[in-house]
Amino acid sequence: SAIELEDVVKEYHSHGEVVQAVKGVTLDIPEGEFFSLLGPSGCGKTTTMRMIAGFEAPSKGLVRLLGQDVTNVPPNKRDVNMVFQSYALFPHMSVWDNVAFGLKQRKTPQEEVKRRVGEMLEIVDLAGREKRMPRQMSGGQQQRVALARALVNRPRALLLDEPLGALDLKLRQAMQIELKRIQREVGITFVYVTHDQSEALTMSDRIAVMNDGLVEQLGGPHEIYERPATAFVAGFIGTSNLLTGAATGGELKIAGGRVLVPGHDGEVTVTVRPEKITIGTEEPARESSAVRGTVAEVVYLGTYNSYAVRLADGAEMTVFQQNAHDATATAERGDSVWLSWRAQHSY
Ligand code: ADP
Ligand code: MG
Fold first, then answer.
1. Is the ipTM of this complex over 0.95?
2. Which of 156, 186, 294, 316 could staple 79 via S-S, CB 3.0–4.6 A?
3. How many CB atoms lie within 10 A of CB 291?
């Protein structure tokens, strides 16, 4: 493992009150993985990162890097580096000098500095811009300089705390692809913090979804999206319909329909993604989950339509339906419709 956290807790004392920023997080991140901490603002992502880097000591628990207990080891003695949203480049130094700074401080031989800085600028696609000053560069370019500066020391792990947060959407999406490519190329473990679900889903090998100081779910992007473990995860990642009630014989009765929950009895919470639901006028087959409702709203969104469908008890479900190039809307406002989905699409 590159990084292990064992039941790590962080308490802050402020104004006589105790704030638990992290309430017991256990993680095991293998070498070379692109790992993300994803969650809303205030859930404890930055605090977790700062404990990995050594800027904060845990109140309880252990931090291990490459199998070694570093819980009480200072940041400069840990083989990790951190990149922040603010690039913190030296404004009076050229790109070259910014990247070379750490190596020179360690008295690395001049030839080696030249070779490693050159290599790194090649990797972040800034070869030829060595003499530029930070203010002469775009936000994306500055962030790549910061990345090169963090990677040139060859840390065993790189920690990135919302590094693309200051960039506009288009640049951010381009940088997501760049970052993933760079990580693959250098083969270093990346721990990436973001509150942006699409960013985490795009780049990560695995994601820990955090909420209120705890990890709610840990898994690959596909798993987290398709099989959210909790209502929080389902709601935080993408759009989701939540249905709750008491199931008997593997079936949950809801107003105007049924949800198939094979193998489950008693109180259940079921989530269904809007794109898994089919909207139609015919009563669906017995082997599908099905519910009747009335179309309350249709929103045209280019490649698909979003329907809000009101059920008999007043609850609303969201349905996404792909638009074929010659399709007209399959249902209109006020229409009485059936919604159906396969048993394996509710969790
Ligand atoms: P995130 O990075 O997910 O937005 P943080 O780790 O920054 O979350 O913060 C988690 C919680 O801990 C928040 O409630 C925050 O207010 C609190 N917190 C963070 N740092 C401190 C501190 N130095 N003193 C007191 N409370 C803090
Ligand atoms: Mg933060």
1. yes
2. 156
3. 23
